[in-house]
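Possible regression after last week's pipeline update?

I re-ran a chain I had predicted before the update to compare outputs. Posting the input and the new output here so someone can diff against the archived version. Not blocking, just want to make sure nothing changed silently.
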Amino acid sequence: MRVLLTSFALASHYNCLVPLGWALAAAGHEVRVASQPSLTDAITASGLTAVPVGTDPELEEVRERPAAAMGPPQVHEDRDEPVTWEQALDFDLVIAPLLLAATNNTEMVDELVAFARSWQPDLVIWEPFTLAGAIAAEACGAVHVRALWGLDVLGSARRALLDLRARQPKAHWEDPVAEWLTLTLARFSRPYTEEVTTGRLTIDTTMPASLRLPVGVPVVGMRTLPYNGRSVMPDWLAEPPTRPRVCFTLGGTGGDFLHDWALGPAELVSAVAELDVEVVATLDAAQRARLGEVPDNVRIVDFVPMNLLMPTCAAVVHHGGAGTFSAALLNGVPQLMVANTWDTPVKAKRLADQGAGIYIPPPKLDADGFRDAVASLVHDPGPRAAADRLRKEMLAEPTPAELVPRLERLVAEHRGA
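New output (post-update):
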């Protein structure tokens, strides 16, 4: 069969699709990856065939708009009280124009639909922000599937809005996301249905079942296979660490979310370096300069593949990014998450509830508390045992190769329905 993978132009979102793309190609299926032009190099580096469509999303311009000044909206699970109708509607009023319409700009949608109608894929797999994939599938009659790279906060928000809207007078049945999708689909003579927002099936590529949100849609798990793009194993990783190794990383996007951190990365690295541990830290030039003289037990690197580093670690400190989070889960590594955006605080809380990590909100950072938290993850057997339990849960999920027959059956049952 023909399979089209779709992601907007952000490598950290695309990376979750790569192992599934490999598995489908290895099973003999034709695989193409469609995205905006700036992702082309990342796609071809992964060994898959790129189809550039449309123009790149002007995310920097979107971030400058007044409504975006406070950053991404607070997801419902990050609230202490049950979400209200006003909050659910406000969430959709923000994400419809500033997230979904911005990442799925008109040029991308039009060219993706044109390609899909020309190539006629049987299956379209799209990451949660790239609703252009669902639109293209509807336009050409393909079966389509979502592939999650984090908690399904969009699916949860969708369910909350529909549940709360049903209790409102019909005169106030606003639905910004559905209205945008309805108008977009109408350009291709297709009606809106709820399946456009969720797909025929959802694949969770990073979370074991015990960490997922109860969203009420069909979900199948997949064992995470961390993919970091082009990578080379450094010589020093061939030698086992002589003392507990702690990874400190902000991933590929964490540096964008430091605005409310009470302490910066350099100060935190200095604090944890006071422990009898080895620290491997990914810092940029400015952050390294703030560190001053690098302690003997600190190794500064520009990049290191998480799938290679994580098996050697006793703990990891990070901002909650999908790649680091899932690599730590797969290797049973306790996590300290300094998380402040989108689903990351919720992931951190759910991980802490399982006993496999610690969550520190960025404004509450202080050197002593941070250092003590890292020490507890390294030396307390409880977090390691809890992390190992989640690791075993993740390993019980089907591999991408084992998931391929499920997708083949799905297409056979529903293609052209």
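Follow-up from reviewer: compared with the archived run. The longest strand covers residues 30-35. Marking as no regression found.
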